[in-house]
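Practice problem 4.
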């Protein structure tokens, strides 16, 4: 998953009513097409170490949520406000050290839902995971605030219907994420006013993660 870098601030100024102030860091482990080809037993050793490290970081209270994307890659969500601190924690991961993924790190501010540590008693579930990135061009720059306001209003209609598990900002310059209970369908995604205008680009995947990771009910 490659993100288009925005060259201006993400001018999303409308916050949802239950906006929260916790500091989290989202890490994307993106599928790496050109990763080194290793013997199967070595890959297994790396991945076993990767899973053991996830367990250790969770028990230490650093890693609050993690899960794979369908088709490869996945996410970490750390309880921290420091990307430098998280980079240090990531260096303990055998898969990261072996450069098995392209790693991207973003500050995350929840605006609907939050991040919760689920502990050891949890059930895995699938969610639709959408990443929005600001796309600045000379044609979209002037009306970007108005278009993003219409995007927020569109997302609010999904929240009102109970379709949204979580939503939040990936930093002022990077965009946002939307986590839905089920695949909303391509038509619903592309009918977003900001997508139609070209002010936002999006990437959608299926996420497999512990229910309750976004503070939603576990049952």
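Answer key:
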């Amino acid at each position: 998953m490659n993100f288009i870098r925005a060259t201006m601030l993400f001018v999303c100024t409308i916050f949802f009513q239950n906006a929260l102030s916790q500091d989290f860091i989202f890490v994307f482990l993106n599928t790496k097409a050109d990763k080194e080809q290793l013997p199967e037993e070595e890959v297994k050793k790396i991945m076993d170490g990767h899973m053991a490290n996830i367990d250790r970081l969770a028990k230490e209270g650093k890693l609050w949520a993690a899960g794979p994307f369908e088709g490869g890659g996945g996410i970490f969500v750390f309880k921290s406000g420091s990307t430098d601190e998280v980079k240090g924690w990531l260096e303990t991961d055998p898969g990261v050290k072996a450069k098995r993924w392209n790693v991207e790190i973003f500050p995350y501010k929840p605006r609907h839902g939050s991040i919760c540590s689920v502990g050891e008693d949890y059930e895995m579930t699938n969610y639709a995971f959408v990443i929005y990135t600001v796309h600045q061009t000379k044609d979209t720059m002037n009306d970007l605030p108005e278009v993003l306001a219409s995007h927020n209003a569109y997302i609010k209609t999904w929240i009102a219907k109970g379709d949204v598990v979580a939503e939040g900002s990936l930093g002022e310059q990077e965009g946002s994420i939307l986590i839905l209970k089920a695949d909303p369908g391509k038509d619903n995604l592309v009918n977003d006013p900001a997508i139609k205008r070209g002010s936002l680009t999006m990437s959608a995947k299926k996420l497999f993660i512990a229910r309750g990771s976004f503070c939603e009910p576990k049952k």
